[in-house]
Amino acid sequence: MKALLAVQKVSVHFGGTKAVHEVDLEFEAGRLYGLIGPNGSGKSTLLGAMSRLTRLTAGALVFRGDAYTHLTPEAVARLGVRRTFQTVRLLPEMTVLDNVKLGADARLAGRSIARNWLFPAHTARVEKQGARAAAEAIERLGLTAVAREFPLNLSYGTQRRVEIARALAAQPSVLMLDEPTAGMTREERDEVGSLLRELSADGLTQILVEHDVPLITRVCDHLYVMNAGQLIASGDDPAAVVQRPEVQEAYLGRRAHAVS
Ligand SMILES: Nc1ncnc2c1ncn2[C@@H]1O[C@H](COP(=O)(O)OP(=O)(O)OP(=O)(O)O)[C@@H](O)[C@H]1O
Ligand SMILES: [Mg+2]
């Protein structure tokens, strides 16, 4: 099967730091991919490169068979390749609902004013779809009761769920999540895990960066492991991949205990 999205020999170097070095990855439609690796192994940098927010030193990015290596981050988002960030990036002066709507509005942003004016019926339809997508995302993430609250009045775990809702409201084809469950309770993590499986059942392609290895092995269809900027292991049986010696060693080099 041809990959929906491919990363081909991608490198991102910051001066002498090879944050990502000659990484090749493929993502097939509708599957949930895990991406793990010790701190500083290049996971977030890779997501930055894939969303075009971070400049590539070398390599190519391909979506639906076309290179998008030179598109702007906004154009990549409009293609349907969306990400969430490792830290909360909500607008504190806007309600949960309005923050989530921003995700949906991103589909309209970038269309010229003239185009929106020339095709008002289409624009109205896209706006209506966006409002519906925002409402659905709010419900899906269990945020209905707090839709009119401001983010800072909510727990950190809830703020992170708002971020996932905002990304979903854009109705992406590929959703990249950078440690979405960091700072959440075990119960909240398991709920997010179940939600990601549901989204997968609906056909959404997902890339999940996480340190929560039990969660990763439970929900992912395929696992990629990075260390020091390079891909060191991958496979369709995440629990088995985690047990491989090269993966255990990568974690042992950084932490007092191996990953389990
Ligand atoms: N903007 C930048 N400028 C210089 N170096 C950077 C920059 N961003 C990341 N790095 C470096 O690139 C390497 C990879 O960092 P990255 O944040 O991608 O790792 P990570 O796998 O996401 O780690 P973590 O699990 O801690 O989030 C690190 O050595 C980091 O210090
Ligand atoms: Mg990171």
Summarize the structure.
By secondary structure, this protein is of the alpha/beta class.
User: What's the SSE pattern?
Assistant: EEEHEEHEHHHHEHEHEEHH
Helicity, as a percent range: 25-40%
According to CATH, what is the class of the largest domain?
Alpha Beta
The CATH superfamily of the largest domain bears the name P-loop containing nucleotide triphosphate hydrolases
| Number of structural units classed as domains | 2
Low-confidence stretches: none
Count all strands and give the number. 10
Structure class: alpha/beta
Number of helices: 10
Any overview of this molecule?
With 260 residues, this protein is of the alpha/beta class. It has two domains: 1-80 and 172-260, Rossmann fold, CATH 3.40.50; 92-171, no CATH class. The chain is built from ten helices and ten strands. The protein has helices at residues 43-50, 73-79, 96-105, 113-118, 120-140, 156-169, 186-201, 213-219, 238-243, 245-252; strands spanning 5-14, 17-27, 32-36, 58-63, 66-67, 81-84, 174-178, 205-209, 222-227, 230-235. Strands 6-7-8-3-9-10 form a six-stranded mixed sheet, sandwiched between helices. A four-stranded antiparallel sheet has the order 2-1-4-5, covered by helices on one side. The radius of gyration is 19 Å and the shape is globular. Bound molecules: adenosine-5'-triphosphate and magnesium ion. Residues 14, 17, 19, 37, 39-45, 86 line the site of adenosine-5'-triphosphate.
